[in-house]
Specification:
homodimer, alpha+beta, eight-stranded mixed sheet, two-stranded antiparallel ribbon, 25 helices, 54% helix, 11% strand
Chain lengths: 675, 675
Amino acid sequence: MVHLTAPTTDPAHTGVPDGLVPGLTALLDGEHAEVRRRVIDGITSYAHVLEEGETLPPEEFKDRVRDVVVELAGSGLTGLGFPEEYGGGGDLGASIAAFEALAHGDLSVLVKVGVQFGLFGGAILQLGTRRHHDAYLADVVAGRLLGCFAMTEHRHGSNVAALETVATYDVATQEFVITTTREDAYKDYIGNAARHAELAVVFAQLEVGGEQRGVHAFVVPIREGPSTGSGRRAQPAAGVRIGDDGPKMGLNGVDNGRLWFDGVRVPRTALLNRFADVSPDGVYSSPIESQSRRFFTMLGTLIQGRVSVGGAAITASKVALAIAVSYANRRRQFEATSETEEELLLDYGLHQRRLLPLLARTYALHFAQDVLRTNLHAVLTGAGDGTEGEEHAKRELESRAAGTKALATWHATRTIQECREACGGAGYLAVNRFAALKADTDVFTTFEGDNHVLLQLVAKGLLTDYASEFEEMNQLDMVRFVAGLAVDTVLERTSVHKLLERARSLLPGGSEADAEAGHAGHAGDVGLRDPAYHLAMLGFREEHILGSVARRLKAGVDRGRNPGEVFSAVQDHVVAAARAHVERLVLEAFVEKVAATPPGPVHDALDLLCDLHALTVIEADRAWFMEHGRLSVSRAKAITAEVNALCREVRPLAQELVDAFAIPRELLRSEDLIG
Amino acid sequence: MVHLTAPTTDPAHTGVPDGLVPGLTALLDGEHAEVRRRVIDGITSYAHVLEEGETLPPEEFKDRVRDVVVELAGSGLTGLGFPEEYGGGGDLGASIAAFEALAHGDLSVLVKVGVQFGLFGGAILQLGTRRHHDAYLADVVAGRLLGCFAMTEHRHGSNVAALETVATYDVATQEFVITTTREDAYKDYIGNAARHAELAVVFAQLEVGGEQRGVHAFVVPIREGPSTGSGRRAQPAAGVRIGDDGPKMGLNGVDNGRLWFDGVRVPRTALLNRFADVSPDGVYSSPIESQSRRFFTMLGTLIQGRVSVGGAAITASKVALAIAVSYANRRRQFEATSETEEELLLDYGLHQRRLLPLLARTYALHFAQDVLRTNLHAVLTGAGDGTEGEEHAKRELESRAAGTKALATWHATRTIQECREACGGAGYLAVNRFAALKADTDVFTTFEGDNHVLLQLVAKGLLTDYASEFEEMNQLDMVRFVAGLAVDTVLERTSVHKLLERARSLLPGGSEADAEAGHAGHAGDVGLRDPAYHLAMLGFREEHILGSVARRLKAGVDRGRNPGEVFSAVQDHVVAAARAHVERLVLEAFVEKVAATPPGPVHDALDLLCDLHALTVIEADRAWFMEHGRLSVSRAKAITAEVNALCREVRPLAQELVDAFAIPRELLRSEDLIG
């Protein structure tokens, strides 16, 4: 653990309590502490990869990253989510925690691990059956067999149901024939495809006996021929054309590529047949009746990708903050409080405002990610008895994963940018890590589900109470569905409704009748630092926005407008409802973590951070709260003053709060910034 | 000019008037149309450099960029700001316009041009006298003599007055002796230093006869020895150590480096002596008495750099929007209004919200930049009679340049990011330009003056009414100065005060006495699309924030607190005052441009955009307006609805509005995004 405190902020002088840093670290590392630390030790020995990303020629760097991934696989740290019989760890939660820890290092390594073990291996595990597991998983887990996940096409990313690759069953030969149906419908951005994958899991529209059965996944060899020196096959398989996506903004250690299939034949058993199968004589069968339901069940098993990306984004934010806060705590510029000595950057009020709320939000998201990871583990390793309650829990989990991923990845983009700027010109040098952090994480906001599309999924879940058919509804269906419900029905089913039933008395303004800002009552005895008040505020916002979205959708349909146009007009409101929902979940996770922490310095530090996070969120949307009668002008101003006060209170702990991330010095680099 | 309109939005079908695009282009190009188009033609022939940035090894790319810069110099387009007798164009305004146009191409070329002709050449022109001009300028302008601008040090960027390089006059040899006084006080991030510069303009603390005279600039050879193949000298000069800053986030075609000086001797005439000189026998003299005043006068002549960077940022935003809007106007995803055809992205309300206000703001900043460029030309090429009025105009100009640079560069960062995300995974591929746009412009927010520091300079100017000594005041002086004034005095001197005297009747809420939100009157007959209303709102905000900053500074000092602590506590408020001021100037420029445009389709399109820009700005800060009694809850909601309505109205013109930037197809690249 690095401790970079400058002399003037030595704990001895500022009263930072002993044990704060290790206590926080233990809390952050949580139940998977041992796995996290093993992964971090592992990648610290590969810290030089961070520099090689800048110095090696691009193709060499890609091969270097491949080698690192294969070596990591040998250590057993990348296969924790696979069954033990195939060399895995049999612990899904630990595998997510390991991935989060991996994000402290080079992010090409991270994403290549995600492609190989999460997407490719995960698809075989989750969509395949015993025959696929036995055939592939041991080699996949050990890194002997590299593969790719060929879902996205050039013309279709977010709208996976509209893919244009076709797999036709040929009953005569008992094979599937895979074809890219138009030149520009190639698989695109496929990690591992351009250089290293031997196999691909290919998503294609299944056609059996002239009938369209929707999107299914197939294992397709894409390279063949004699092994090259490094034990890989080098030639594209017959009928497969492979292209390279060329240089990218970041992640240039990952070989993203394009795939075209020209009548490629694979045996009948190449269909990953957990959710649907085709018999030798061409009879299609599935335990799930509805085609689109089947499709979303398949996609749902891939939820780990979203959870992993969100977690990695939080880690990347920590790395950026560890550098920027440590720098601000050493760097002096301009005389301010003294005529003779320049001031520490972190003693400037503006600098505190720039960095400390982002630090608080990083903690908040960390704890929200803890909840998500724990739920994921519980739901995916549960009994699988197919009960209604279990199905509902799955859909809620998918929604939480989507929403957390969106908020966490946008947070990373914003945090890394602010941290870079807060380090001035030095932040621009590659040696100081921001260059790669920024470039590599940029795509997080749009891959594994575009954030705006994900938030619309979240809103759809809320509006339909995760009705069993909700994921299958397109925008038009969803609008029609909501239009058919009473708004109160929509609201009463939500979890926030129960929260508010308990907490409404905490809100100034009382009933909705007096919802004009000027008439909102003052808070009376409700303190600005009361977490119940914070939660009630975010809960109120969530329910109110959701209700008005439902009302607007109904009103539009009632007036006979095209549901698509109605949706388009309400769309930013729909996304706002989803954001409000996820913000409440994030805060709830933080509040519960503080409440569960025993009294002491760790508790007190988290309590401050949680208040700072909550009030920053409320402050950012205080216009909305005033517009909806839940904040008076004077209380709105008081919140801004309180955020400033909290920044000043957190400032003496700032170094400890980033030291608690316990990031090895080698992974931070930035020698000229933080010594 | 590209016209990328998709069939469904063909002007013929949507009623876009003929002549809109050329009319807008002519207006945007303005008085320097011919120069702009010549530059764009010039860089279009170098469009392949955009690709070479991805494919050439870094050192080769740096040399390639150097060659392009030298070739451009030969075309006369990079020296427009220099006197004609040295091969320049003698037109400062045109030189800024040329730089803005250059930013359509590779930004390493742009920045290398900025370093060579703006910073290095500009310093010799502005800080030197005839002997320096005659000795160097013809070669500088022609690109035969490359140089660098060695101001920033590793330990001091923003605080230039605290530089630690020293130049001591040795009367015995009539030389200055230049020394880096500590190992870590090297010159850092110096463009052109690592590979190509023969000369450096070095900023150092002048010491004459044991007296400290503050920062001055010297011409110092940093490379010597026989020419290399390309006609450049390759060896560091005696006593000079040169380092390389290594890989950077972007701008890797520029050779940024580090310089250490170990007793390097230069003749007495190496001092750039326009504002101060040392006689052979060691007598220091200057026409400007105050040392810090002299220093800021020197810095003031370098204002062009800020104006240039701001202009380049606006151009980069246009490139990003041209790609993202054209893509959104072709790309379909998900069925929305139709069951059978997917929807154009730009027909989604959310997508309009994401892109169109950014487009409107880009137009706004363009016109604000026009005003700035025109003022710069007028002030810097004015009579130079040293009158009080002229001095005041100079300081106002410096403030406007600082503020516009800050807003324009942050806008570029935000716009490029949003455009990248709006293009999904494809936006991540280098061939689609966002990678380089984002990486290369990132440093704009912190170089040529850190944006936060610049905004504090703006605020200081406002608070002190650009008192002759304002630039020299450090934070403590400034706080004390303001504390000595009546708040009304501060306000009455500002330009916004006059604006408000005329416009106050347009504001709902009347006098300040009833400034609580709930009591604010409704707008009555003041329309939401009335530019006078928009200006009055932004003017009110500016004056109010400025007044309360002054009050808080005074109150703090009156209570006997350390002025530095007072400043730190108020600092985010100080920056808010500056932002509010610059936002008003930007809107004013747009409103005036619309008013000056004759009736017709161009006028109408600009009018819509101006309303969209103004209401977006007010909407973003509507919490503040409610808190200060200038917006009722119902009117705040009406503004949000109006922004949505304006987005829908602008949408049919969106393609034309980016086509009007008239960016050659070759410079946009992005074939798979926009065909």
